[in-house]
Amino acid sequence: KVYVIHWVSVDRHASTEEAYKDGRSRLKRLLSKVYNANVPKLSPGFVKLHTRQFGTPLNKSTMTSDEYKSAVMQAKEHILAGNIFQIVLSQRFERRTYATPFEVYRALRIVNPSPYMAYVQARGCILVASSPEILTKVEKVCRPIYCY
């Protein structure tokens, strides 16, 4: 769903009715251009990643292989016991890179597009995330409009 908004300066017209009619007329012309535009389809994105130049593979993790296998077994036991019906086990891998976090986000968006992606920059931390399930959600947004 797309909303198209056209702002009309009322003081440039003799009356509000005239401003309204002018605004509708301009909006109809704009929508006609949008509907009748012959826009070419975008070609699929491509990122050439030279992963070999980073050196050793991802080997710095928050868990050892045995710790991860143990966590999988424990999760299976909880599922069989009926304590949980689904679990997502994860571990963090680290690697030094010269790419900026936003470049990583852009590459991830092309290589692994997902319905739920996030790029959040906060004090001292940047989160780049991609998931088939929702990870982040905006609850309230306030964007006041200032007129000078």
TrEMBL record:
Span of domain Chorismate-utilising enzyme C-terminal: 66-140
InterPro entries xref list: ADC_synthase (IPR005801), Anth_synth_I-like (IPR019999), Chorismate_C (IPR015890)
GO biological process, one term: L-tryptophan biosynthetic process
Superkingdom: Eukaryota
Full protein name: Chorismate-utilising enzyme C-terminal domain-containing protein
